[in-house]
Design a protein that fits this description.
The protein is of the alpha/beta class. The chain has nine helices and eight strands. The N and C termini lie far apart (42 Å).
């Protein structure tokens, strides 16, 4: 048995920065279908943040709306991201299949809101969700922030802690350096989110896969904030070399070809 790095398709969540989360419903349905058929593990459908009228439905991902869009399957679990300081625990029902199609929540935080993020993780775990803590702009965490991570007693409730190369400035050596730093803080499972400002998102994600990270993030054609992130069709292609039974990039490539005139 080889521990496999999981893939999180965050096209709709990260790509939503480009169109204010106003995606065509059929586009999202077809993309989810491609993710399922490609062998992807999680599909991040957007944010679950407090309502703001400038944004489309995928910025809030209300359960009733999601039920109308998705027939979720255990093969590719649905997840949302919640921004510490912009979300509310009351936006989340208990994690039961008749109440929500979501099974995983990623709590995103900057260093100054880390204590609030810990509380959110604990409260959402109590509601039954799988939890990943997302550390944004990880290069900016100082000794005091690292100490807080080290001293948090409830690390075991997380599926993983994810750190983000928010400015796309990491080299593969940095991916390993920060992984080791989080290991020293007592986190067992570590995930990675790579931005592509130096055209190194794919290389950095491969470094994470080869180092047994819990998961890596990717999106269709690499769409996302700023310079974008790791292209999902590339990371699925790479994962197919490791496990050809599970992964297949063809559904994504067919999806890209069928939408190239849009």
């Amino acid at each position: 048995y080889v521990k496999m790095t999981k893939i999180i398709d965050c096209t709709i969540r990260d790509g939503g920065h480009l169109n204010n989360w106003k995606f065509d419903i059929d586009f999202v349905k077809q993309l989810y279908s491609a993710a399922v058929n490609a062998g992807v593990d999680y599909f991040e459908v957007g944010y679950r943040n407090i309502k703001n009228n400038n944004y489309g439905n995928f910025a809030f991902c209300e359960d009733d709306f999601l039920f109308a869009v998705f027939k979720n399957t255990e093969k590719c679990k649905l997840s949302v991201m919640a921004d510490t300081g912009k979300t509310d625990i009351n936006l989340f029902k208990k994690c039961l299949p008749n109440l929500t199609p979501i099974s995983m929540v990623r709590i995103a935080t900057y260093p100054e809101k880390i204590d609030e993020a810990f509380n959110l993780c604990e409260e959402l775990k109590n509601k039954g969700y799988e939890i990943i803590l997302n550390l944004m702009a990880f290069a900016k965490y100082n000794e005091n922030d690292i100490e807080k991570l080290k001293n948090w007693k409830n690390k075991a409730l997380l599926s993983a802690v994810c750190y983000s190369d928010s400015f796309g400035s990491f080299l593969p050596d940095d991916v390993i350096k920060y992984y080791n730093q989080l290991k020293e803080c007592g986190f067992n499972s570590i995930s990675f989110h790579a931005h592509n400002n130096l055209q190194l998102a794919f290389a950095n994600s491969i470094t994470a896969v080869n180092s047994d990270f819990y998961s890596v993030d990717a999106s269709l054609n690499g769409i996302g904030r700023s310079a974008g992130i790791t292209p999902v069709e590339l990371i699925v292609w790479y994962m197919k070399k490791i496990n050809k039974e599970k992964y297949n990039p063809i559904p994504y490539l067919e999806f890209i070809f069928s939408h190239q005139d849009e």
